[in-house]
Amino acid sequence: MILVIEIAKQELVLMKYQSPIQSKSYKFSILIINLYQKLQEKNEFVLARQILKSGTSIGANVEEAVGAQSGKDFFMKITIAYKEARETNYWLRLLRDCNYIDHEESLKLINDIEELLKLLTTIQKTVKSNRVKSRYIPNPLTTLELLP
User: Fold this and answer.
1) What is the tens place of the pLDDT at every residue in 55-91?
2) What residue numbers bound the domain in which 80 lies?
3) The domain that contains 110 carries what CATH number?
4) What is the pLDDT of residues 21-59, one digit of tens each?
5) How far apart are alpha carbons 131 and 129 in whole angstroms?
6) Where is pLDDT greater, at 140 or 112?
7) Residue 139 included in any domain
8) Please, how many CA atoms are within 13 Å of residue 73, restricted to the half-sphere of its CB?
9) Number of structural domains the chain divides into
10) Residue 148 belongs to some domain of the structure
11) How are the residues of the chain apportioned to helix, strand and coil, as percentages rounded to the nearest 5?
């Protein structure tokens, strides 16, 4: 766990060059990894694996969106990140309601995931709006890209 924290500190220095969705999804992934470790200590392996996969996939898909090869590719990766965030929200509520995580910890994590959902929804709406206006779909995280 100490190694994860040290790596996180180093990454936070790099985050000043990232978009809000990139940095927030990365920080959320760290929280999910810590939750995974706590669940493993409680011998809850199935739910721990589920929350780890969906919770860290959000940031991974955001990063893939940053490197997208087209506007459509960008939109699809952001949409996948949104779906993973919805799934993560489900698992967090389930873990809370089954008393695997305490109320205070669940509030923080659920607030964080809801913030990510709002950001991802805004990005999706922006891309859709720009798609209607022109053939160019801006990648809010990088540059303008031409639709194929």
Assistant:
1) 999 999 999 999 999 989 999 999 999 999 999 999 9
2) 21-133
3) 1.20.1440.60
4) 999 999 999 999 999 999 999 999 999 999 999 999 999
5) 5
6) 112
7) no
8) 13
9) 1
10) no
11) 80, 5, 15
